[in-house]
Design goal:
Layout lengths: L1 H37 L32 E2 L5 E7 L3 E2 L5 E9 L5 E5 L4 E7 L2 E5 L11 E5 L4 E8 L21 E9 L2 E2 L3 E5 L1
Parallel strand pairs: 1-5, 3-12
Antiparallel strand pairs: 2-4, 4-9, 5-8, 6-7, 6-10, 10-11, 10-12
């Protein structure tokens, strides 16, 4: 009887032991897998990260607009005014002449400017007694100036109360100081002439 039951008992014990061992093994495998997933390796101290690149919204190269064409000045869009620092002078006293050229157009104009383009003179009873160009060699160059609407170009010249009756361009004109009486001061720029100003020298 005992021989017929023994093999059965051994088989049941062996199966139970194998089942226990399998359960323990499965538990260990699950614990290792969980620990491996939860573990985060420390970053290496020399680990390099990719730099962040920022793309600018505006272009890096400035856009250069072509220059705007400016119309040349004409006698119809320029006005000239002339004035002296005083209306009455003593004989031999310098007279400071100021010429103002203004753009009267509604748009910008381009004007040629240079010493040789200006002429200042003084007359007495219709006779010229002084001219700024007599005996003076002006540099023959011009520069282009742009005047916006309402802008002005201002020039000054000084007359030292002397006469110069020689033709324009004659070197070393004879001069006589202390011109006295009622005089008219004139100024021109190219084809433009400003209204004369009357002064008195005593």
């Amino acid at each position: 009887m005992s021989r017929s039951i023994r093999p059965t008992v051994d088989t049941l014990e062996e199966r139970a032991m194998l089942s226990t061992v399998a359960a323990i093994h499965a538990s260990l495998v699950h614990s290792r897998a969980t620990a491996h997933v939860a573990h985060t390796p420390a970053r290496h101290p020399f680990h390099l990260t990719s730099p962040t690149v920022t793309i600018p919204k505006e272009p890096l190269i400035p856009i250069v607009k072509p220059p705007t064409q400016v119309a040349p000045a004409t006698t119809s869009n320029l006005s000239m005014t002339l004035k002296t620092d005083k209306s009455s002078y003593k004989a031999g006293e310098p007279v400071l002449i100021t010429l103002k050229i203004t753009n009267t157009a509604s748009h910008a104009v381009q004007i040629a400017d240079g010493p040789s383009l200006y002429d200042y003179s003084v007359t007495q009873n219709g006779t010229k007694v002084w001219d700024s160009r007599v005996g003076v060699a002006f540099p023959m160059f011009v520069v282009l100036e742009t005047l916006k609407p309402g802008d002005s170009l201002i020039k000054t010249y000084q007359w030292n109360d002397q006469t110069s009756t020689d033709p324009v361009g004659t070197p070393n004109p004879p001069t006589t100081p202390q011109v006295v009486g009622t005089l008219q001061v004139h100024a021109s720029f190219g084809q433009l002439a400003a209204p004369a100003v009357t002064i008195t020298v005593r």
